[in-house]
């Protein structure tokens, strides 16, 4: 997997085989920071921390230049500045992020009606039914990348695969500003060497439990007895990760999904223990 800062990035060649694919996962690159640079080009190339300047606040997002110093979302700004003293702190403009998000989603919906937004900066698209209109899934992915850049002014990364899970993994590996195509016949080979933490639904605690049993890669999941997986993470998740490790993911793109989450935090100057006050906030 990628490291969140562009290291380990893998992209496909222009003539990549997209046999058996139909799902695209499109993810904007460092979206909040990209919008700030779009509105203020003097920020381009600088390590940016999107957040409030006081020491108790947390990082909402960071540019790739800052991420390479170890800066991550949800990290205290004070810690981020210790890691990257040269970073520029930029206050977030959430209304602007939503505005740009609507422009991006409109591009997706002009390509296919089967769009499932996951948040303001990412979505799944099913392009099987629009191939005659726009071309192969890989070509459609390139078209979307071109249009987002030309019409909105920011970059995105796209994963193309036969399933939602693999498409999302591929877009992560391709970041920033990349395209990774995983043909259906190549799915098992693509998954085999990926760390278990790359599997959708495997959080830190589940990963620690699996790793303690020597299960560190997707191939290890395939090789492990189901009983071992169930003991490590419970029967429900154990069955789920076994399916994902085999490349099985029957979930369709859900066009009824309306969630467009956007992160927003408020940090108080002092710790607050008044529950009614916190509920009101």
Furnish the topology, listing elements before pairings.
Blueprint: E1 23-28, H1 31-39, E2 48-50, E3 61-62, H2 64-67, H3 77-83, E4 88-90, H4 94-111, E5 115-119, E6 122-126, H5 131-134, H6 137-152, E7 156-161, H7 164-174, E8 179-181, H8 187-192, H9 204-211, H10 218-223, H11 226-233, H12 235-245, H13 275-280
Parallel strand pairs: 2-4, 7-8
Antiparallel strand pairs: 1-6, 1-7, 2-3, 5-6
Helix pairs in contact: 4-6, 11-12
Class of the largest domain in CATH?
Answer: Alpha Beta
Provide the CATH architecture of the largest domain.
Answer: 2-Layer Sandwich
Q: Strand count, sense and closure of the main sheet?
A: 5 strands, mixed
| Oligomeric state of shown chains | single chain
* Total beta strand runs: 8
Major sheet: arrangement of strands: 5-6-1-7-8
Shape: globular
**SSE topology string:** EHEEHHEHEEHHEHEHHHHHH
Name the poorly predicted regions.
260-265
Report the mean per-residue pLDDT as an integer: 91
Total helix count? 13
Report the β-strand fraction as a percent range.
Answer: 5-15%
Judged by helices, strands and strand pairing, the structural class is alpha/beta
- CATH topology of the largest domain, which one? Alpha-Beta Plaits
Relative helix content: 40-55%
Distance between the first and last residues' Cα = 38 Å
CATH superfamily of the largest domain: Reverse transcriptase/Diguanylate cyclase domain
Counting structural domains, the number is: 3
> Over the alpha carbons, how many angstroms does the gyration radius reach?
20 Å
């Amino acid at each position: 997997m990628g490291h969140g800062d562009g290291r380990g990035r893998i992209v496909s060649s222009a003539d990549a085989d997209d046999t058996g694919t139909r799902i695209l996962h499109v993810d904007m690159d460092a979206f909040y920071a990209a919008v700030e640079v779009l509105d203020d080009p003097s920020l381009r190339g600088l390590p940016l921390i999107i957040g409030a300047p006081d020491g108790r606040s947390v990082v909402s997002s960071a540019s790739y230049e800052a991420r390479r110093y170890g800066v991550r979302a949800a990290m205290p700004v004070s810690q981020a500045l210790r890691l990257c003293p040269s970073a520029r702190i930029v206050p977030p403009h959430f209304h602007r992020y939503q505005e740009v998000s609507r422009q991006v989603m409109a591009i997706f919906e002009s390509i296919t009606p089967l769009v499932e937004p996951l948040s303001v900066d990412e979505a799944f698209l099913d392009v099987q039914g629009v191939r005659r209109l726009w071309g192969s899934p890989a070509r459609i992915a390139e078209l979307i990348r071109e249009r987002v850049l030309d019409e909105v002014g920011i970059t995105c990364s796209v994963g193309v695969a036969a399933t939602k899970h693999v498409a999302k993994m591929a877009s992560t590996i391709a970041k920033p500003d990349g395209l990774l195509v995983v043909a259906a016949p190549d799915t098992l080979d693509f998954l085999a060497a990926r760390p278990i933490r790359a599997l959708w639904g495997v959080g830190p605690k589940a990963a620690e439990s699996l790793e303690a049993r020597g299960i560190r890669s997707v191939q290890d999941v395939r090789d492990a007895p189901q009983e071992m997986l169930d003991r490590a993470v419970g029967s429900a998740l154990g069955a789920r990760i076994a399916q994902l490790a085999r490349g099985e993911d029957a979930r369709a793109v859900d066009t009824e999904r309306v969630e467009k989450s956007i992160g927003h935090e408020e940090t108080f100057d002092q710790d607050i223990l008044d529950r009614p006050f916190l509920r009101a906030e």
